[in-house]
# Entry
Amino acid sequence: MSRRTLFHAGGAAALAGALLSQTGPAFTASEAGLQELIDRRRLVLTGGRSATDIPELASQLEGMGETTGKWWTSLDKAPARTSLWNDIPLTGIGQSAAATGNMGLHFNRLYDMALGYTVPGNPYAGNPDLAADIVAGLQLLNDTAYKPSIKAAGNWWFWEIGVPRKTVDILTLLHAEVPQALRTSLLAAVRWFAPNPNWRGRATSLAETGANRVDKSLACCMRGILDNNPSEIALGRDALSDTIRGGTNSVFTYVTSGDGFYADGSYVQHSYLPYAGTYGVVALAGIAEIIAMLGGSTWAVNDPKRSVLLDAVEETYAPFVWDGGIMDTIRGRAVSRQREPDYVSGFGLISAVLLLAPGCEELYRSRFLALAKGWLERCADQKLVGHPTQSLAKSLLSLGVLSDSAVVAAPAPVYSRMFADQDRLVHHRPQWGCTVNLSSKRIGRYEWGNSENNLGWYQGDGMTFLYTRQDPSQFSADFWPTVDPYALPGTTVNDQVRASGAGGAGTGIPRGFQAFAGGLTVDGRWGVIGMDHLNHNKSLSGRKSWFFLDDAVVCLGAGITGTGGAAVQTTIENRAFAVGSVPDLRTDSRNRTLAPGDAPVVLKRSLHVEGHGGYVFLDAPGVSGTPEVSVVRRTGSWFDINSGADTGGTTDPVTRDYVTITHRHGADPVASGYAYMVLPAAAPSDTFSQSANPDVKVLANSAEVQMVEVAKEKLVLANFFAAGTSGGYAASGPCTVAAQQTGDKLTLSVADPSRTQPSVRITLIGSAWGTLVNSDPGVALVNVSPLVIEVQLDGHGHQKNLTLGS
# Structure
């Protein structure tokens, strides 16, 4: 067998083909028994074949063996033991949150050992002594920690999701080795703490949503399979569709508020946060695994609305993938997890898509495989195949699609997309991408809690993520533990000291106070967003806008006002580099080599960072204060930002050098402002050309209106934060407006990011346009001279488009 054929046989085609049999005849429990479903689940967990003959997976097999050996060697085997490992005691289980977290770690380690026992080619595969110790460990946990009589103290997630998932997977891997009595007892505990996947706990007062519902559904299906209880398999499957409440919380239905998938591609979890990159991936992966496991059986997932989930691959997830990694803007508090950088979330998405694809109709199958292959091929930061965070099965899936010449990789996207229901816009260009964290009354600033994301205070205050192909690991290479949390790119903050969230119980998502956050796109090519910013304690306010163009992002700030004696600054950029590798800088007309500790350099017109891009400071009304650049060396630890029970990072110090560009507004500024243009991946000549003669003209930069014009494109983009007039346009209330002239037509787009009014009127002062050629529903021509357009709004910030003629 050739190498390519071997990869193909051991990868996506063989694995998914063995898992999915929707095209064949259905089987029932009486015909084939439930062992077939157990075997399918084991295949997903192990890959089902030895990888010793695949060099790319040698390090992964070695790492798996090392992990198994580590936990087995350190296992306490004393007859009088009360815990399996001395470093994570179970003392206080049922009363202590720490003991609950340690219980979760116990099951995690036993799962690692179970993989070592069952994965073919692993040095511990089939070791009977290892199996006996795992079974004995399960017995101890069932006798002392995870049983119905124990109080569910601490974080509910461990009792209802984390431990049940690990329990059913361990019992699947060691199905023949675990005595039936122990298996039955453990499943009884799972059933006690999470009896019904539709609900939180044992009551029926709080309905589960999104990823939590999917996690519980998978565990419920598996406990039914393992316990020969067909009704529980059906219960788990039907919970995906929420049949008991008529689909209210179905994962296959679009929502208009709260958790779930939105028709515009948004995905929200925990009510207030864009979370497709973590919870959304968990949901997609879990559903893919359920579909793969139950396909062709009596319990196959046949919800006619499952296209909502399938469409989400391209509409919800793909726009926020940058060369295999998922942008941090939709990853919530997971950005603080040392073991879950952006590419690990991306790998989870890729694996889910590859598992899902073979069971889909051709409309989806080929597109999913093409997307996954493109992401894998462009991922220059890390490689999924053989990565220590991935399972062998996932690596085999990836090898399969990479070696399949019939699959043509999808190219990187080039578009601008607005997601009004989660206050996000993503902008992809051939060599760079950009997105911004906005917050509002509807969408939270950040999520913290359970000692995770301890310093994330300003992540939603306009943090701007700039991705370039020259710098693929910007946000994954120790950025979060080393970046100054008061100086996140794009944010305007004051220097008031904030308290760490370490040690806080539960989780929280502080939302913004203001309504205006969002924007629109033009022809899928350009975009504009804005935010009415009022900080966490109302001591700082300002209006902020971002304009996304072909080769630049223009950033405006106005009305920046502070109180309480604090100094205020806007961080234009805070770019991380490996220690000692800060590139050369050119400030205005002078080449510079700055090192940590050197005095900041005041900037006048421009700055170019070699290999990264340029910054041009624009003439605009309301600008005050001075920008400066410095190089700062910062050291921190992952434990500083995440000290969670099962996600906490190490205390090992990590260090990065930062090129920090700061616009200082001074103490207690009044109506201060800024205006600059970012030129990602630009050559020095581009930076200096734009500095001398910018393509962009700032028409307005006030607390009421921020507006720019790109003359060569006949394009005007604006945010009206209130009723106002500027640049030949007037708005009757808050809105975002874009206008572009093409030939003898003017295309106009309007949205209301504040969602505070049923309609808005736009007046074109002194224009030659006089007819409404075509429009979306809800648009009307009210007057011709001057031309007035009234736009009926949908209350969700979605844009309306229209075309005017002369």
The two ends are 69 Å apart (CA to CA).
